């Protein structure tokens, strides 16, 4: 058995195609990106090595970067927590209802398969002060806030709006992942526990939760990475405005790179983003320990 | 079984992919010179009248030069335009001819030597063509004495007004800023929105700010060379006036997009709209009845300050790739963009202003507003660019726009907002 | 599995409340999409003046116009081809790598897992230009094949990540008994892991397919020929420099969404089947 699983040649054959594509298409450009982040590089003129100047400016001078960092972290924490809870909740609810499971699941998952760009336009329309939700509220004599332009508070209203739209769109993804895992748990275990007098809540706590732990790492990592890289919705709803207050790291690096042609600087932001993603994934792995199934 | 199925699927897919990879060989036949032209709007799906005019030019070019030249347009939407153009340039696939905004955007392509200088061609080989252009039009396309672009049209920013509302309220066209405030107050009292403006689309607000700055005597050249500062009194005063004027904007100005602000005007909700003359086509297209009641006046003067006859104008420009092998074809294309047929269309249908002299515009066929615009322009003593396209870099322009939005939203006082721009210049421009 | 039906539970009030909550959620989920459908049947002036009303005059011609102007027919085919091939290849390559990482014993398996994971963290915007320059030198730009390669590669991390999880959760006894029956490593993969991981394939397939189907930036930059453009690119046609044609844009969006929804409904029922099959393990 072990001999079969240690077959070097087979490992190579299995890994090689993916690895090859990965290195050529991703790793090489990433290395270039690392180098560019140390350069003054204006896209069309050759890069000039400047050492850590980009990073210095980023951390010491750039107030937009500070806003973007704050928003990104907020967005990640909010998304991770809210999408986990809502996603897991929906999954548990749906596995426990007798009828209509498929219908509900399909509907909740639907926004995940739609393009964020299109949904961004749709929601920007909805939160437009004149023709959107505010027009509806006005019919009841309520004056709605400037959903996407209000700038008061530490985390400004537009960020909350965007975070909730993201929750709306992506909660289905976690639901799906958890459902896949929960449905995989044998009914027998539950039935045995019910016979032993366990309540549904107890069954959830002592059977479901431990058994979906591996999926928790998966979905939590996906949530965190996804929300750190988050771009489409924000770009289409606020474009980072008003005055860069809804900028996150991904939109800021887009603006620096594509609007202002500062590729070197944009590369430095992506390196920061990359490092954050890595750190978060490692932290998640550390926190949620999983027993090895191999036995 | 599964394995077989999958491998069959894979191999067919791969083969299909290979076929797809075979490059287009349309230009292989004969010695037709194939060129590309890059533009920021799709030529078929567009509703924009100027874009439609460009589509006509492209068709006309391919017909006229059938068998000799052929142009293929490469289109993106406006937002992805620079990204794609830069990628093409970086990969050495610069389109033979491409459109570009004036100001810092053009600077980038000129400085990167992606654009070819045209002075020699214009002054020596194509003298007649060169002489046909409106005087002074090449000013913003000249770098160190070399012309790098050819304009296709220009637009001016003006105040459009609803003559019906003005008559009903009993007010006259304001000529000074104080009169403007007075008119606004009366219109507001009569229950209309005085001015429709968009702060959701920052450059719309910034255009008003640009006018106020210029009327206050802000000198961009002096600021660029640090002989003047953004924190000078005239800037701050312009900011204060912007805040003052903004109380007469529609309630939802903060979030409205450009489309919506314009719609508010042609739907008769607002009495005035400060916009570029491209809005004419949009106004008349969406509400044809509005043409007869739409008047135009120039942005009012600020008494005791700068020359009130200066206008904000903006050109669309064509650049030629510095690496093109088909110069003649590109020049022929540029000439077609600026010939009488195209320019007449620009004016009569597109509502923008031609860039050549000696052209017979049929003002009866053209939108009524065009005549007013032309008349106002005839009295203009000077022009200047949109502020966001006249500053040191695209980023500087955005910084200015955002500062104006912050003043409008009340997040910053005019002093604070201009201090932000000042700091940006200290950190990035004046170093 | 037949046991499920033998135990009948009375309908508890909790279940009723659950249904009400779920139904309310359905409204939140469906209303915006229905609204979009509604807008796509109006004209632009009506959208501005009465955004929430039902269309007074139906404008189904928006769809016809969007279809011809956006060249949606060609775009649909292109998207289907590019995304279909990318899906098949990335699932195949991805699951191979995932299998080696999850089940085979070698020192670097954990490292390889993390290594592939990095791919998920890279913002596309930042490697766009180097990538484009390299592909242009190879003559792979402006071709559907050239677009497939990055799509496959960007799908790999997600596929590997999810499939590793699914392969890992397979009971080891299955492989042991197969080994006793004389099954080799390739047999493990194709005869045991492959069929049992159907759920995994559906989940990761769905996720990567959707990602590629909606991908705009690479498609926009890589493809110049209008006949090779993919759907998301053509959707941007309706956003003009000064004005947006909302009704046609929404009509086009709905046309673009339709196949995803159909494919998705097919897939999602498959997932349930796959789940039932996968539950063998318990």
From TrEMBL, chain A:
Q: Where in the cell is it found?
A: Cell membrane
Instruction: Write one Pfam family the protein is assigned to.
Output: BPD_transp_1
Which SUPFAM superfamilies would you find in this protein's record?
Answer: MetI-like
Q: What's the main place this protein lives? A: membrane
Note whether Zinc occurs among the keywords: no
Q: Cite the InterPro entries for this sequence.
A: ABC_transporter_permease, MetI-like, MetI-like_sf
Q: Where is the ABC transmembrane type-1 domain?
A: 69-284
**Signal sequence span per UniProt?**
none
What are the UniProt keywords, alphabetically? Cell membrane, Membrane, Transmembrane, Transmembrane helix, Transport
Q: What's its membrane topology?
A: Multi-pass membrane protein
Q: Which residues cross the membrane?
A: 12-35, 73-95, 107-127, 153-171, 215-235, 263-284
Q: Which family is it part of?
A: Belongs to the binding-protein-dependent transport system permease family.
Q: Which PANTHER family match?
A: ABC TRANSPORTER PERMEASE PROTEIN, INNER MEMBRANE ABC TRANSPORTER PERMEASE PROTEIN YCJO
- Supply the name of the protein: Sugar ABC transporter permease
TrEMBL record, chain B:
Asked if the Swiss-Prot or TrEMBL record annotates the protein with the keyword Transport, the reply is yes
Per UniProt, the keywords (alphabetical) are: Signal, Transport
Pfam families per record = SBP_bac_1 (PF01547)
Q: Which SUPFAM superfamilies match?
A: Periplasmic binding protein-like II
Signal peptide range in chain numbering: 1-20
Q: Does the keyword Signal apply?
A: yes
Similarity remark: Belongs to the bacterial solute-binding protein 1 family.
UniProt-recorded name of the protein: Extracellular solute-binding protein
- Organism of origin is Jingyaoa shaoxingensis
Lineage, broadest ranks:
Bacteria, Bacillati, Bacillota, Clostridia, Lachnospirales
Automatic annotation (TrEMBL), chain C:
* Membrane topology category: Multi-pass membrane protein
Which positions, given as ranges, span the membrane? 12-35, 79-102, 114-133, 145-167, 201-223, 243-267
* Lineage start: Bacteria, Bacillati, Bacillota, Clostridia, Lachnospirales
Entries under SUPFAM superfamilies matching the protein? MetI-like
**Gene3D superfamilies the record matches:** MetI-like
Q: Which InterPro entries match?
A: MetI-like, MetI-like_sf
Tell me the protein family, please: Belongs to the binding-protein-dependent transport system permease family.
Q: What is this protein called?
A: Carbohydrate ABC transporter permease
Which species is the source of this protein?
A: Jingyaoa shaoxingensis
- Provide this UniProt record's keywords sorted from A to Z: Cell membrane, Membrane, Transmembrane, Transmembrane helix, Transport
CDD domains reported for this sequence: TM_PBP2
Q: Where in the cell does this protein reside?
A: Cell membrane
- All residue ranges annotated as the ABC transmembrane type-1 domain in the record: 76-267
Q: What is its main location?
A: membrane
